[in-house]
Amino acid sequence: MESLRRLLTFLSILLILLADLACAAQPIKSTRDVGHRVRNIVLVHGAWADGSGWKGVYNILVKDGYHVTIVQEPLTSFDQDVAATRRALAQQNGPCILVAHSYGGSVITEAGMDATVAGLVYVAAHMPDAGESEAGDGKRFPSDLSKSTAIRKTADGFDYLDPVQFREYFAADLTTEQAAFEAHSQVLIADANFKSVITAPAWRSKPSWMVVAAKDRTINPELERWYAARAKSRKVEVEGASHSVYVSHPKEVATVIEEAATASQK
Q1: DSSP string for 100-157
Q2: What is the CATH number of the domain that holds 82?
Q3: pLDDT for 160-179, tens place per residue?
């Protein structure tokens, strides 16, 4: 009888120890880790480009564990570009960082009021306020491109960049071969898109970041700095970068996006 009692006591202690070990083996997940980490990134391209330009940034973000969606706006109208972005936001399974290059900045400014958006990152991008358009804001600090002959128009109201001048104004820090490919694969944009007026700027109520391309000739870097100052954005300058900074400096751009994801916990 005494032996049985000792055996039962031993088994009870062993079960308790095993249960403790099982609990210790489980990772401790805080509410912040499970429900509040921003792990979704939505990338929006600009004029005369498509989503493939984000490939370098995409690779870094995915390697670092983020879920990345790239919006392919049609560039046929501002409303359709905003709608395409909102469709991508609707597919997210939690809060996200909404990122844009160039003209895409106007798009995310309008689409960014979506409840899933925790923060905004503008990469050499426009950042208009309510009642403003990027065409109007561009006059504050005219760019080299706006003073050039590189912007061409089609008979039906679409704009494109002269392939011969494309690298000079849009992609000076890319190789000649890469810039030539981008010039001959550029997506034409409706001229009216640049004149579309913002109604509800998301950066007024959400944290924002601005990547300034210090050698940008498509958008004047001074305008990018002015946008950042007005919005009280966290500003990061990439020295020597052309307007195609998201292609030529993917590591620096991805670092800013990840900083935004860390800072914009919801």
Answers
A1: EEETHHHHHHHHTTSTTEEEEEEEEE----TT--HHHHHTTS--TGGGSS-EEE-TTS
A2: 3.40.50.1820
A3: 999 999 999 999 999 999 99
